[in-house]
What does this fold into?
Amino acid sequence: MTTVDELREAEPTVFTRAARRWQDLATSMTTRAEEVTDALSGLGEWRGAAAETAKQQLGGQRGRLDELARGLGGIPPVLRDAGERLTRLQESLRAALATAHANRLRVASDGQVTDDAVVVATPPQPGRPNRAQLCAELTTTLRDTLRQAATVDAEAAAALRRITQEATGMAPGGIQVCTSLSATIPAAGTSPAEVKRWWDGLSIADRESLLASDGARIGALDGIPAMVRDRANRVVLAGLRASLAEERTRLEAKAHRTPDDEQRLADLKKKGEGLDAIANRLATKPGRENLEPFLLRVSADGNGRAVVAMGNPDRAENVATLVPGTGSSLADGASYLKHADAMANAATKEGAKSVSVISWVGYDAPQSLVPDAAQDSFADNARADLARFQDGLRVTHEGGPSHNTVVGHSYGSTVVGHTARDLGIKADDVVFIGSPGVGVDRADQLNLPPERVHASVAEHDVIKVTNVPLGLDRDFLPLDPHGPDPADSRFGGKVFASDPGTRGPAVLGGLSDVAHSQYWEEDSKSLRNMGKIIAGKPTT
It folds into this structure.
């Protein structure tokens, strides 16, 4: 049964906000059905067996979307009713608690009211119950209120289960189309080639059904076309923003918050800001300096994930992936979106006819310099995900092969190096900027031609304190820099120029953490050279 504290601290307006979101979703399903209708009308002149099959599938999909919209439209009234009933019950609870408090009565979590106070006997007053009678009456009122609250919760849950089961075709005795389709979705980690074969084998109707029922799983699979992942993940993004905002509102409303509550609130705030930054970039109108964005993955689990492409990687001739380093997370994703935009613009200026640059916050990066960033484990744990993502870019690309580049900044270069060294990486060029080391001593150990390995470090970049000269034994040094500086000419790759960066204090020999993040400054040497590499042009 619901407890006194649970009902007192409940937030009935959550139901109202949820009702609005479900109504928006139902409306979007109606809009999608109308789009299918428009698509059907545009096929009027198409004849033949293939045409009839396509029209039949689209017609069936239109019917499913109509049914889904009608079913989802039944959810908002249930939520609004639950919110209104809980509001009234909460008012009744608070009135009973106020009476108990005024009479110095104890209220247990189950609604039991007792009299623990020592009271001097006074003559009974006409029309007023004695204290024992008051305890009994309040207990009856409170327990009845709690039972009604539990009933509201159970009835709403049952109604929502019934509506969603009917709307998605999973009601007992129904066709269970969505259930059988969901069972065919490849598991996380499946090779992109296998995922692509599975997706290509689905009918248009089945694809649309899966996007409606399992969008989060579809959007996270490498091997699914970028446009499809973008559609799925935009819905996931909206859901994440709403759920995190709800949790934040609920925690902020608590009268007494624990240290864990405060820590969670801070986490929700930061992740919310990261999700907002993604939503704002997705809403930006495409132009010369803002390519159309595609949301390839988003998650709030752990440190979060945010993979956003500036330009369609399935159609661009030049595709680059930026792998960030220490401190990167969903909360910090806004800066990497700007870096990706800057790199795309730089490549265009260098002659790339079509370009896509991807901000890949796709792994759990170290969140501290010491001890996290000195460890190899973060890079090792990211290898499979980065390699699979690069495979996926090749598998879903349309037309001739694109020129692909992977850029690693700071610890991100360590991730790229470990991936290339251990699993191979399907890229034409790799770029290391501000690197603490990439896990090898020579460029030819990365399973790539050395002339395809590029590196640069700013003169004042603080990362230089971790770069151990070639030939020294790193095991006897206080820092583990993951290998020699790939921007050392003796490493065997191609070194390109960067601006010196902001000079730091003399005690650090002029090195600064500011310089470590200035590789994307407008018109800087480093940005121009990254643009050249992405465009397939020689650097300076």
In short: The radius of gyration is 30 Å. Confidence is low (pLDDT under 50) at residues 118-122, 169-177, 470-480. Residues 312 and 373 are 32 Å apart (CA to CA).
